[in-house]
Design brief:
Layout: H1 3-11, H2 13-16, H3 19-43, H4 49-61, H5 65-84, H6 86-107, H7 120-140, H8 147-159, H9 163-178, H10 184-206, H11 208-213
Helix pairs in contact: 1-6, 3-6, 3-7, 4-5, 4-9, 5-6, 5-8, 7-10, 8-9, 9-10
Length: about 220
């Protein structure tokens, strides 16, 4: 273990974990988990990224998520530590802990939104809004809500892609592989959620002007 990095991380705790930053991270995780609990899980919308890979490995190789979850998440966080530094890890510890706490909280209550199983397109759109805004708030503070975010942030850092493009790359790759066992119709609604959430994460992280500018064609010099 690189003890110098551990010492550096401990030194940065007071300046990194400010009350305002922790509060915004908790707000983001509350919004994201509310949507995942009340929409995604009830309507059975699948995911891309790390979560989708867990389902894929379980289906084809029989490796339970209880084993693959820590392996994939730890791998993503080690990559993030290498490229994004100890400050990112500190904030991610707060956000992942907050995610778990809010998931547990929502489990204590009955569903708080109408059942959208009969309206999968609306569910995909609304679910993408909750995830996009919630995760966007977490990422804006410099953390991540799980291995998916850490991996996307590393890809964005290394390739200099916009964050939305990095999310789409990981999500579309896994969703494409998921076509080997999931019907096309179900994947289609997952794609809607992926596009909406990726775009909103970019907007919340960087603001509307920067996010919209990424959609416009670049001017050539001369």
């Amino acid at each position: 273990m690189p003890w110098a990095k551990v010492h550096d991380m401990l030194r940065k705790i007071p300046e990194t974990l400010t009350f305002r930053r922790i509060l915004l991270i908790m707000l983001g995780t509350a919004i994201a988990t509310f949507g995942l609990h009340n929409i995604h899980q009830r309507v059975d919308i699948t995911e891309g990224g790390v979560l989708g890979m867990l389902l894929l490995l379980d289906h084809w190789f029989g490796i339970p998520p209880s084993i693959t979850t820590p392996v994939l998440d730890i791998t993503c966080y080690l990559l993030a530590w290498r490229f994004l530094g100890s400050r990112f890890i500190l904030l991610s510890i707060v956000s992942t802990t907050s995610m778990s706490l809010f998931f547990g909280l929502w489990d204590l209550f009955p569903p708080m939104l109408p059942d959208l199983s009969g309206m999968p397109l609306l569910a995909a759109l609304l679910g993408g809004v909750f995830v996009g805004i919630g995760v966007g708030l977490v990422v804006r503070q410099g953390g991540s809500s799980g291995g998916d975010d850490a991996l996307a942030l590393v890809i964005s850092h290394v390739t200099h892609w916009r964050l939305a493009r990095a999310y789409l790359f990981t999500d579309l790759t896994v969703l494409g592989l998921s076509l080997t066992y999931i019907p096309v119709q179900r994947i289609a609604f997952s794609l809607v959620t992926v596009f909406v959430s990726s775009f909103l994460i970019d907007i919340v992280k960087d603001g509307v002007p920067d996010a919209m500018r990424s959609l416009l064609p670049r001017r050539r010099n001369g």
